[in-house]
Specification:
Layout: E1 2-7, E2 9-10, H1 20-23, E3 36-38, H2 41-52, E4 65-67, E5 71-72, E6 90-104, E7 113-117, E8 120-132, E9 137-138, E10 141-145, E11 149-155, E12 158-161, E13 166-169, E14 172-175, E15 180-182, E16 185-186, E17 189-191, E18 197-200, E19 203-206, E20 214-215, E21 218-219, E22 222-224, E23 232-233, E24 236-239, E25 249-250, E26 253-254, E27 257-259, E28 268-269, E29 272-275, E30 283-284, E31 287-288, H3 305-309, E32 312-316, E33 318-319, E34 322-323, E35 325-331, E36 341-348, E37 352-357, E38 365-369, E39 374-382, E40 384-391, E41 397-401, E42 409-415, E43 421-426, E44 431-432, E45 443-445
Parallel strand pairs: 1-40, 3-4, 4-6, 5-6, 6-8, 7-10, 8-11, 8-12, 9-13, 10-14, 11-15, 11-16, 12-17, 13-18, 14-19, 15-20, 16-21, 17-22, 18-23, 19-24, 20-25, 21-26, 22-27, 23-28, 24-29, 25-30, 26-31, 32-39
Antiparallel strand pairs: 2-44, 33-34, 35-36, 36-38, 37-39, 40-42, 41-43, 43-45
């Protein structure tokens, strides 16, 4: 695979004065195709003001943004989006970190985002503290509805409840409609005080009309309450799946520490605290350890024997902290309450290809008997890619890839996921305009 980059060098340079107000404008248009680029704490605060319509900004709840660097917050944070003006755009963390989050909630729906509807919140790490005395509290999103997606977020935010409330989660407090939470991790402490209803390491409450799912999530945090009869789960606190549409909890792992004030642990469980008796919620391919010994409560739907009595641990190897792929797991006879076989399919991510299982098998798709514990890991090889960079005219300037001497043309073979820095060097009388991928940064990282 080849990537080609081209820049154009112009002879004329037009200098334009920029008003002070324009100097403070965010880069980008705030659309899905041209999101605001966030490069500082001031940028992120300005984006929040745009979403909330505060500090003189015209409200735009559909504004889209992309983090360009790690952000450290230094002041109190006001959640983005409210129940009456929910956030509906896309916020792409771009693999960056937001630290120093400090929230003292003054209303329901507390988190980095308060209330979202049909939004996409994805791909960042979050650290800080959140104090709330209100329902629907989660470090990333307090209340998510519509077709929202919360994906690939790692949170270590410590959450403290100051009043007895409901729907409290490490990532999201309350989800409904077709909202899904995918590939998220919670490692912090969720201290709900005396609160006893719907407390979860990833999600507190999946509402009765929720048709989304919780998948590929992990919780290693601590969830604690002083209540004697709590409803708490390492992944999901409580689901009231009246419509039987909930996609359930799939491919999740909890080693959370769950502590409570009494001896009634019927709704204290490693995966789901409570599933209403009339619900048919799916709990598939989960793995549990930690302080809770059951996946979910016993008055819920029938859970396949393989989930109760057989530990299934299928993992993927990582390379320099990069996840190389996923494993899709399904029962061969899903209509049975006691399936006898598991189908495991390795799905490499772009830039990687499946190599072998730790056990020695080279089969990318395997059928495994559910007769004993299953422990295995999939390994991958990286693919190589070639990057070529050249100028549109050698008389205008030269290019450089990761050091060395600037030339009219350079070629570099590297592994996918490796970072390369491209530099453009205009000759006297010319200036850099852009790369062929649209970037206007003279020094461009790919």
């Amino acid at each position: 695979m080849k990537q080609r980059f081209l820049f154009t060098l112009l002879m004329a340079v037009v200098m334009m004065a920029m008003s002070p107000q324009r100097m403070w404008a965010l880069s980008g248009n705030g659309t899905a195709d041209s999101p605001y680029t966030i490069s500082s704490e001031a940028d992120l605060q300005k984006f929040a003001n745009i979403v909330n319509g505060t500090n003189g900004e015209k409200r735009n709840t559909a504004a889209c943004a992309k983090l360009m660097t790690n952000i450290t917050l230094s002041g109190a944070w006001t959640p983005m989006g409210t129940s009456s003006n929910a956030y509906t755009g896309t916020f792409d963390g771009n693999g960056k970190t937001i630290s120093g989050l400090s929230i003292t909630a003054t209303a329901a729906n507390a988190g980095l985002f308060g209330c979202v509807n049909g939004a996409t919140i994805k791909n960042f790490t979050l650290a800080g503290t959140l104090s709330s005395g209100y329902d629907n509290t989660g470090s990333v999103v307090g209340y998510a509805k519509g077709s929202s997606t919360i994906q690939d977020i790692v949170s270590s935010v410590n959450i403290t409840m100051t009043a007895v409330k409901s729907h409290l989660g490490g990532i999201a407090g309350n989800i409904e409609n077709s909202t899904s939470v995918l590939g998220c991790t919670y490692t912090g402490t969720l201290d709900v005080g005396e609160s006893k209803d719907s407390n979860g390491g990833i999600v507190g409450f999946a509402n009765a009309n929720c048709s989304g799912k919780i998948q590929y999530c992990f919780c290693s945090g601590t969830i604690k309450t002083t209540a004697s009869t709590p409803v708490m789960g390492g992944i999901l606190g409580y689901t009231n799946d009246e419509s039987n549409n909930f996609g359930g909890v799939q491919d999740c792992y909890s080693c959370a520490t769950l502590t409570y004030g009494g001896s009634n642990a019927n709704y204290v469980n490693a995966i789901v605290g409570r599933i209403r008796a009339h619900a048919t919620t799916t709990i598939n391919n989960t793995y549990l350890s930690g302080t809770a010994t059951r996946a979910c409560n016993t008055d819920g739907p029938s859970i396949p024997t393989s989930n109760k009595d057989i530990t299934i641990t299928l993992t993927v190897a990582t390379f320099e902290d990069l996840v190389c792929g996923t494993i899709t797991q399904s029962y061969i006879n899903p209509t049975s309450t006691t399936p006898t076989q598991l189908k495991a399919v390795v799905n490499p991510k772009f830039g990687f290809e499946f190599s072998h299982w730790k056990s020695g098998s080279t089969d990318q798709t395997r059928i495994l008997p559910l007769t004993a514990g299953i422990y295995d890991k999939a390994y991958f090889d990286r693919r190589q890619y070639t990057t070529e960079v050249f100028t549109n005219n050698a008389n205008y300037g030269q290019v450089l890839i990761d050091g060395g001497l600037a030339k009219d043309y350079q070629k570099r073979t590297s592994y996918y996921m490796a970072s390369l820095t491209l530099s453009a060097f205009p000759k006297p009388g010319y200036h850099f305009q852009k790369w062929s991928d649209g970037s206007t940064d003279r020094i461009h990282e790919i």
